[in-house]
Protein 1
Amino acid sequence: MTLKLVLPKGRINTKVLKLLSDCGIELIGDERNYRPKVYGFDLEVKLLKSQNIPSLVEMGQHDIGFAGLDWIKERRCNVEVLKNLGYDPVKIVTCIPEDWDWEEMKKRKLIVASEYKNVSTDYLNNLGVEYQLLRSYGATEVFPPEDADMIIDNTSTGTTIRANRLKIVDTVMESSTQFIANSQVLKDPGKRQLVEDLLTLMQAVINGRERVLLEMNCTNDQINAIVELLPSMRYPTVSRLYQDKGFAVKAAVKKSEIRDLIPRLLEAGATDILETPIRKAL
């Protein structure tokens, strides 16, 4: 049984491919190949623009895929979100010329430019303003002030917005890369198992990226103090050293805790400390 996977071309593709590679799934093909060969998992892969992926997964043209939450909402797609990967986070924001007054603007009819027709319509209706929506096809930030009063667009840093003398006055939504599935596919026991196996592999890689394996030695008198300091996924692993000359201790520790933890372990008497990357953790 083969799963049909659709991958995004462009910006979010790099991190998704790295995640799959770390899962042991390799895609072979050059950048112009929209149907790469796959090794390491039973997948049939096609590359498409992120905007098209949610609709095609909903229709059942593909079983699973990766897409931004913004395009899932924009296409109003009924798909199963299996995992928020958090890759390439962006905000969908409302922007106006930097020297205009937002509160005054809301009192009159506005011309709004955006690539996001449905997201913008929902937002503007909830805002309760009169508006005319212009559908843009890229370079939305160049519309104000001559051709639009405001824009609704995505941004990660705000640099392009500021460069065009605009300011952010509201956040419509936040978006990042999602792992999604067709809802009917999950009702097929065989395909559901494959999806769950792939999700397990991805979660193992994500867990491994967040942690390192910390190993150290200590004397018999120091073991309790060392163990009490160590956070771990469950409990640290403790074993006797040769000739009962102390203990070897190891634990999977979050990377964010290492900087503060190592000096405390040294103070408690830990020696021979080793830090090792973890490829997968469950």
Note: The longest strand covers residues 166-175.
Protein 2
Amino acid sequence: MIRPATPADVPAIVSMIRELATYEKAAHEVRVTEEGLRDTLFRDKPAAYVHIAEQDGEVAGFTLWFLTFSTWRGVHGIYMEDLYVRPQHRGGGHGIALMRELAEICAERGYQRLEWAVLTWNEPAIGFYDKLGAVNQDDWYRYRLTDEPLQRLAERRD
């Protein structure tokens, strides 16, 4: 079963974010708090959204996403920040069900893109996405500013 997250799901979502970060060898980068995530997801105008995969009343996985906008297409799209299914629930169709949910949202709302990133070494995820017919955008580099470099840029006055 796939459903939108509720405030009661926040502890499980934070736990899965930490599990995912550990898997991606980036646990040291996690700074999310339950309070912060609850505010992000459940304010009047949410900054992000989560859908939950549930099996027998247990949270099996989640996807966290937010809206993007394509200047070339002139419409919104979805950027999937994370897709995670707990190891004991993998192979049960939860990943494809979560992806299908986002595709249905795109179709219903007229969004024309569903995008995400995957680590180059994450072969199981790459194989999963390839089977869906997703196309690797290898002609684009992703850039990111965080922490001190982001602060330096914000303070730059030249």
Note: The first helix runs from residue 10 to 23.
Protein 3
Amino acid sequence: MKDRADEAAYLAVAPTPGELASGAPLPLPPDRTQSILEATKQVAGLLKAGGHRFALAGSVAAYGHGVPARFQHDTDFAILREDEEAVTRELENAGIKVRKPPEDWLIKATCRGEEIDLIFELARHPVTVEMLQRAEVLPVDSVHMPVLAPTDLMASQLAAFSEHHCDFGSVLPIARVLREKIDWDLLRRENEGAPMPEAFLFLLERLNVIERREASA
């Protein structure tokens, strides 16, 4: 049902061939920011009340750190793999549907009609106790919750880059806003030899978002 609703929403604003040919401004997809935030707050509240270990991740975590955002997709929570059953039970007891997708690195939930990803691995890197301990408790649309630390958040974004996914434009605002809070030297070392992350770091240098490697050495 959710996929059909998304398809219908897209078709309602998708440009026609005539609109594409006219050169006129194209319609924007529906803004689901507040709906996604409400779902985020409800799930975070349940996890907090149940004493579960977690941290907000992804674009909503960036929003928690002050990065402007307009959400169109889902909310990501980082949780420990060993907490899967307890978290599933907590959400299901609150009437939130939880399911296991074919991927073995997350479980998915649906809250207020929005998708929630509860992730055990961030771009193939396991979520650890240490990572969750580094999370910062921040207000997200007035509700306080653990949010991935800036360096961990950026590390997860860099690790997700590949030949098939290299949307630098979506990560650039995060780097700009959080640049003084991120350990760039650590990220350079962790991503040495990885083409896409290195390309993004080089772009940040050329845009004067971060110091060039030679200057920071």
Note: Residues 21 and 31 are 25 Å apart (CA to CA).
Protein 4
Amino acid sequence: MLAQDATRVHRGDAPEDRPIWPALRRGWRRRCPKCGTGPLLKGYLKVRDHCPVCREAYFHHRADDGPAYLTILIVGHLAAPGLLVAYTAWQPDPMVLFTTFAIGTVALSLYLLPRLKGALVAFQWARHMHGFEEGGR
């Protein structure tokens, strides 16, 4: 019996199947990945200890620096080619180019960071990672 459970966990079959895409969408909207109605974040980036609606526990999540790395990755891959295209196509004054891209990258980073954190916590919940096992302990 124990070998069957180990095989099931190794194959990725969880005892309760949690669909990943609805959980990621709920996390992106900064909502509880389980019920979709309760708020996931208490402030800008602070994850609640539990959902106020369905009481799912979040205190054991391990988002750490993942959302920041993903934000840098996405913003960098959008800003660098955009900077090259803007400079070669229009050749604006360097101060105008710097100001425009500085404001754009900061705004995009501030927009993405809490959404990526919610999606990462939701991904951990959907995959039963870091204490998100059955029962929401």
Note: Residues 94-126 form the longest helix (33 residues).
